[in-house]
Amino acid sequence: MLRKTIDIVDKNSQPAGRVAVLNTSEKRSDEWSLLLISVGAERDRQAFAQLFKHFAPLLKSFAQANRHQGWFPGLGEDLVQEVMIKVWQKAAGYNPEKASATTWIYTVARNCRIDMLRRKSNTQHLPLENEDYWHEPDEDTPVSLLRQKRSETKVQDSLSQLPKEQDEILRKVYLEGKSHAEASEELGLPLGTVKSRVRLALQKMQILVSPEYQDELSHES
Amino acid sequence: MSHNLSHHPDNVMLVEFSAGTLPTAESICVSAHLHFCEQCRTELLRLDQVGSQLLTEAEPAEIDESLFDTVMAKIDSAEASPKLATAEKVQSFPHSVSKLIKNPQHQPIWKRLSASVDIARFKTGQSEFEVALHRICAGGKTPKHDHSGVEYTVVLKGSFSDERSVYKEGDFLVRQPGDVHQPMGAQNGECICLSALQAPIKLSNPLGFLMKPLLRINPM
Which residues of chain A are within 8 Å of residue B95 when distances are taken between CB atoms? Predict the structure, then answer.
């Protein structure tokens, strides 16, 4: 069940004269998003079991790749449990207009992972959980599903085609949980080189929306 | 709320925030900026897609058959226990900042720092940065100072200016060690900023002796 009407009109990035004909019933229809919606709306255990079967092995692998301070051998299964419980509890708040189920689950996993590592390596009381940093303002701007999907496709396609030197840094940061500085040390590269490789990768995936990049984008399309 | 901001965190900080590797104090500042900045929220959503894609491509690990039942049992027992009431929302500050204010009224407890500046320090569970709110009264001048560590500032209310620019609600500033500046509150009202100030590394910093007692840093 979708809570809001979906804004399918992409105001900014559709070049004049090339307006695509849109299917007005545009919805997120990938398997995982539909399953997640069922879990949220109907507490569907069958759907949850399918999500579990697909994501649990990936989440465990994601946790095991981590080499951040605080890592411990049981992190994999602990993370699977914590993330999947949160997925069940928070599924009703999943907004399919904004992100695919996979991206949503990634953000839950990222937040859980950093909290577990911080709790393990820190004896002080931590007043904030990682999800506190991700609180959306109430008057969040409506998002365009079409534009979301387009950027998802762009990220997917261009991520797989990144040169190895850019790809390896993103993997160190996202999977191993390294900072840019740590990545530069491990790869024996100056920090400036690491930063500029990441920047190039972000430009290729069209992630940057600052006005200074808009020209580059419109040249490409 | 979504006026165009001219001062943002750099790519490195956003990427590390998205990957969950940005340390606590910096994360609090980035989070406060995101509250005001639609542009950075959009970039972040796209960065999360990078993480999501890498998660999908991971080599699936083996999962013990019993794990699903363990999870379902935990879910059922959590649902059987009464839910905690959610804390009342205080909208005057970004969520991460409100949560740091520990008293029931969610009002910062101000301490006088100088004639025109008050400070309210936060406990954040890390020891590298002092995280605090600063309040500059309308037209108030702060003493000219330099830093021995990095300082991040996010304007939460009102505006202030220094030799370089005017900073408005949501603007995110970084001052490098050695930068000298003299912030001044806007004439038309008080200005409240969130700041994270890196504690000096003892003995190794030749500028340390310049620190005025007024600006002594207390990470907590």
Answer: 132, 135
A196-200 contacts at long range (C-beta below 8 A, 24 or more positions apart): A197/A165, A197/A166, A197/A169, A198/A166, A198/A169, A198/A170, A198/A173, A198/B11, A198/B12, A198/B15, A199/B11, A200/A166
CA B38 to chain centre: 17
For chain A, residues classed under CATH 1.10.10.10 are: 162-221
Domain A1-142 sits in CATH at 1.10.1740.10
What CATH number should be reported for the domain whose range is B1-220? Answer: 2.60.120.10
**Chain-chain contact of A133 with B8 (C-beta, under 8 angstroms):** no
Domain residue limits, chain B:
1-220
Residues of A in contact with B125 (CB under 8 A): 122, 124-128
**Chain A residues closer than 8 Å to B67 by CB:** 56, 77, 80-81
A162-221 belongs to which CATH class? mainly alpha
pLDDT, tens digit, 9 for 90 and up, residues A22-36? 444 467 878 999 999
The ipTM value here is 0.82
Do B17 and A178 count as a contact with CB atoms less than 8 A apart? Answer: no
Q: What is the pLDDT of residues A108-150, one digit of tens each?
A: 999 999 888 888 777 667 788 888 887 776 555 566 788 888 8
- pLDDT of A195 reads 95
